[in-house]
Design brief:
The chain is mostly helical. It is built from 4 helices and 3 strands. The two termini are 38 Å apart.
Amino acid sequence: MKNEHVLTGLLRKRAEIAGEIEHTHRTLNDLIANLDYIDNAIRIIDPTCDATLTKSKPYPPRMGAFKGEMQRFVLAYLRQAKEPATTLEIAYKVMEGRGLNQNDTRAVIVIRKRVGACLFKLKRRGIVREVPYTGEYKRWEIVPPDRAKQ
């Protein structure tokens, strides 16, 4: 077959997604059962209480990135930047790209630390470098290809 390797990859990915769907269904069923247990406990304590009237608490968005996603965001931002960028500037751009709330201070701190870790790994590989700066955050830029580590 001409595209056997492509077909194999697609079948593997399909199996992975199908497994994730099954896992999500099991998780959903467990959550529904747990909610029923809580509702029953509430009814034992106060039979007149209607727990369904309580507003559901929003679930916080997952902040984890897929493998290589953070590096792609960071490098894409540095490539288009007109001047060296701080970790905070890059973090805000990553949050914007992932649809995260930029006003959530804790989320900003987490993403800024992850951007910083990504930049240090890229620095060790000779892909980016720190630019001298007197502010609170380091500034970073991509190393020109002729100066990158071989």
